[in-house]
Amino acid sequence: MSTAKRLLTLSHRILHISTKKELMKNVIKRSGKIEPLTKKKIFDSICNANSAVQDQSEQLTRKQIIRITDTVFEFCQDLDEPIDIDVLEDVIEKKLMEA
Known about the structure:
- It is built from four helices and three strands.
- By secondary structure, it is mainly alpha-helical.
- The chain has one domain.
- Helix 2 packs across helix 3 (about 60-75) and helix 3 packs across helix 4 (about 85-99).
- The protein starts with a helix and ends with a helix.
């Protein structure tokens, strides 16, 4: 592969990575610190809430948790500004109650 072609490929990769970073949404923690919002953080939050349910028959399935995670993450992606952690928790709680 020629040097020019390698540079072009590399520049496309860098553009893809930087575009991905720009699309990442943030969450405002209670401390005021702003952190990236990831699906994993949302998923972990839902799993923690689910494990607190005493009656196992009322716990969500993994498939339900993934669906709710995707829904909450998509909601956050549509926002123009970082989401406050308390608002995010309210959105997650609402989606859990709807499940």
